[in-house]
Write a structure and sequence with these properties.
There is one protein chain. This protein has 361 residues and is α/β, with parallel strands linked by helices. The chain folds into 2 domains: 4-37 and 178-360, no CATH class; 44-162, D-Maltodextrin-Binding Protein, domain 2, CATH 3.40.190. The chain is built from 17 helices and 4 strands. Strands 2-1-3-4 form a 4-stranded mixed sheet, with helices on both faces. The radius of gyration is 28 Å and the shape is elongated. The chain starts with a helix and ends with a helix. It comes from Helicobacter cappadocius.
Length: 361
């Protein structure tokens, strides 16, 4: 028989385990949320090189500065002068207005306005590019409409001639382009995955015997599943969509907790060395943020990245979460995603078997 009182005393005395189970999840969630609470990038500093110094160039600068995303903080005389600020991050982008812009516009000659930014800042770069293109598109439509009005006094005809095709784009997911929603719903599950692994490793690190492993596994799955559901409720509390079923998500959370716990149990049972197990588990779970299939879509991955994505339970869990939260996909289709995590369950009996065999020696 398993002595549950002794087991509870062990878990109570294991300070690191208690911290992982009852203390760390909330501060980690609040820290990540506090970093991205602004939701949308605003007033990103950019520089301008005005080679034309005309009314049109000043209008371009004014329109750029009037957007909520961009803020013109400095004017430069040359690219070399602006390069230092770009490298140091004092500005995120540089707009180059060429000489003769106003003259060419009046003559109907196509003229390009250059815009340079650091694409390594992926989300910032996307925001910069989007805002810049909107400003230029608006000015192009305005100038084309003015030229058409010279030929026709009818504004509607002039406008339709300037913009014969108007696109209407409706986002099915994250329509406000909230980058916080995009990142928090990925970073928190990845942090949760690491906490599951750390909890399991600390629960079995100083014990031996198959029965004790089973008890530790059960406790880790229960605690991890609780925090997983708390995470789902937290997402809805801060306004993120939940169009699907919590019951399906709970099954996914349970499968995720069992999968990670089983893998950790197998690694520790096989290596029987905490230091080595920490290294292996860290190397295994750390790439989760990159290979979960969100920031780096699976259809764009090469062979190695795709392989790593397939051997991470978090990639299947994120697929399930997005299906349920954003699209409310049919439960049967989502159960097929959960079924993809079932092969990871084989590590649990393997870990128990290895520990049982070791105990018989």
């Amino acid at each position: 028989m398993i002595d549950y009182k002794k087991a509870l005393v062990y878990f109570a005395r294991n300070k690191m385990l208690c911290a992982i189970y009852f203390i760390l999840p909330i501060p980690i969630a609040l820290l990540i949320y506090s970093i991205f609470y602004i939701r949308l990038p605003t007033e990103l500093p950019i520089g301008v090189i005005d080679g034309d110094k005309s009314g049109i160039s000043r209008e371009v600068e004014f329109n750029l500065d009037s957007t909520s995303t961009l803020r013109v903080v400095k004017k430069y005389n040359s690219i070399l002068e602006a390069k230092a600020d770009l490298n140091e991050g004092n500005i995120y982008g540089l707009v180059i207005i060429p000489n003769g812009l106003e003259k060419n516009i009046k003559l109907g000659i196509e003229t390009k306005i250059g815009f340079y930014y650091n694409a390594q800042f992926v989300l910032i770069g996307k925001a910069l590019d989007s805002s810049f293109l909107k400003v230029i598109a608006t000015m192009n439509a305005k100038n084309d409409t003015i030229r058409k009005l010279i030929k026709s006094s009818n504004f509607e005809i002039a406008f339709s001639g300037a913009m014969p095709v108007v696109s209407t784009i409706g986002a099915l997911y994250n329509p406000s382009n909230d980058y916080a929603q995009f990142l928090i719903t990925l970073i928190l599950p990845c942090a949760w995955q690491i906490l599951i692994a750390l909890g399991m490793l600390n629960a079995i690190g100083k014990i031996s015997g198959a029965k004790k492993y089973l008890l530790a596994f059960g406790m880790n799955v229960v605690v991890s599943s609780f925090w997983g559901m708390a995470m789902m409720v937290f997402f809805q509390t801060i306004g993120y969509p939940m169009n699907g079923s919590y019951n399906v998500l709970f099954l996914g959370i349970l499968a995720m907790s069992c999968a990670i716990s089983g893998i950790v149990m197998f690694v520790q049972a096989f290596l029987h060395n905490m230091a080595k197990s920490v290294g292996v588990i860290a190397a295994y779970t750390a790439p989760g943020l990159a290979f979960a299939g969100i920031t780096y879509p699976q259809n764009a991955m090469d062979g190695f990245a795709l392989f790593w994505s397939h051997i991470l339970p978090i990639s299947y869990f994120m697929e399930l979460y997005l299906q349920q939260a954003n699209y409310g996909l049919d439960s049967m289709d989502s159960l097929k995603v959960i079924a993809k995590m079932l092969p990871f369950f084989v590590f649990f009996p393997l870990g128990v078997l290895i520990e049982h065999l070791r105990g018989q020696k």
